[in-house]
Design brief:
With 325 residues, the chain is an all-alpha fold. Helices cover 76% and strands 1% of the residues. The protein has a two-stranded parallel sheet with strand order 1-2.
Length: 325
């Protein structure tokens, strides 16, 4: 065996005892994942946390039945075998990534987990010759297949109309704080802060290619700066604004796009054609910012438009005047 390389067994080569041991460890892992989901959601989404708590209890019940069957057939010592020891076996998302998952993504992950477990139990049942073990594995496959109904029942119990509305509002608020707010700040910074250098360069040199290079550099540089600043400014633990990397990504990408919008027209060789298109793009960018502020930040549209368009127009004019001088 090559040092440092993990040797994996094929599923078809596992003994019946190893299949039971693998099922036991898999149920333990799934219960732990559901409890991690529940703990992550408990403050903002208590009703959904209760659903995952219930699903974890279901997995605990499966594990106990499997352990009892192992004790009856093979004794007390359970072989150490886990998913990562079996070639081609389904894997689970590392638990430390859970903080980067939203509520809906957690629910999707849970559904995928149940489907994977169902397929495993169906395959495992075919590999055993013991009638009681085969029946147990078949029952567990059916239970995993019916977990969507169990989840629905738990949802009806814990997620009444008011609780669901509260969670939807909380999820929307989290979306605003994590994605929209940083992205909007980036778009505003990229669209407005790059106006002066790009148009100053354009009118000072009259060279569209050099203007494009300056605009590209200003946009990418501003995007990197805004992205790292957003990510480093707040870890989201106290403010509740979510993952710093998500916010940094949203801010950095939108900052870069905001600047590139009016830099790209300068790939056109004709100066006045490029400049005219760039100015038109600027006003579309500014109106888009006003629309986002109105839709997601509940800023009155005309007030947002006046602030953004007037401010952008002043910066644009300043760049043109400086470049012309």
């Amino acid at each position: 065996m090559i040092p440092g390389v993990v040797h994996r067994r094929r599923f078809v080569d596992l003994s019946e005892q190893e299949i039971l041991a693998l099922a036991i460890s898999s149920e333990e892992d799934d219960a732990r994942i559901y409890r991690t989901y529940a703990e992550r959601l408990r403050v903002e989404f208590p009703a959904s946390a209760a659903i995952f708590d219930g699903m974890a209890e279901e997995e605990d019940g499966h594990r106990k039945r499997l352990i009892e069957r192992h004790q009856a057939r093979f004794g007390e010592v359970i072989p150490l075998i886990r998913r990562e020891h079996v070639s081609g076996f389904y894997s689970r998302r590392p638990i430390w990534l859970v903080e980067n998952l939203g509520l809906e993504r957690m629910r999707e992950e849970a559904e995928a987990m149940e489907r994977d477990a169902q397929r495993f139990y169906e395959a495992a049942a075919k590999r055993t010759s013991d009638a009681e073990t085969r029946k147990l594995l078949g029952d567990l496959a059916a239970a995993e297949a019916g977990h969507s109904e169990k989840a629905d029942a738990l949802a009806e119990k814990h997620l009444d109309g008011e609780a669901r509305d509260q969670e939807e509002r909380a999820a929307h608020r989290q979306f605003i704080l994590t994605w929209v707010q940083p992205g909007l700040a980036g778009l505003m910074d990229g669209s407005v802060s790059t106006l002066a250098p790009i148009f100053a360069a354009a009118f000072a040199t009259g060279d569209t290619w050099n203007t494009f290079l300056i605009g590209l550099a200003a946009s990418v540089g501003a995007g990197i700066s805004m992205g790292f600043t957003e990510a480093a400014s707040d870890d989201g633990q106290i403010s509740g604004r979510g993952s710093p990397w998500k916010r940094g990504f949203a801010s950095g990408i939108m900052t870069t796009l905001g600047g590139l919008g009016h830099a790209l027209p300068y790939l056109i060789s004709d100066f006045w054609t490029a400049t005219t298109i760039a100015i038109i793009v600027v006003f579309f960018e500014l109106w888009a910012i006003a629309w986002i502020q109105n839709k997601y930040m509940e800023t009155p549209f005309f007030r947002a438009a006046m602030q953004v368009v007037l401010g952008g127009a002043l910066v644009l004019a300043a760049g043109i005047l400086i470049g012309s001088g």
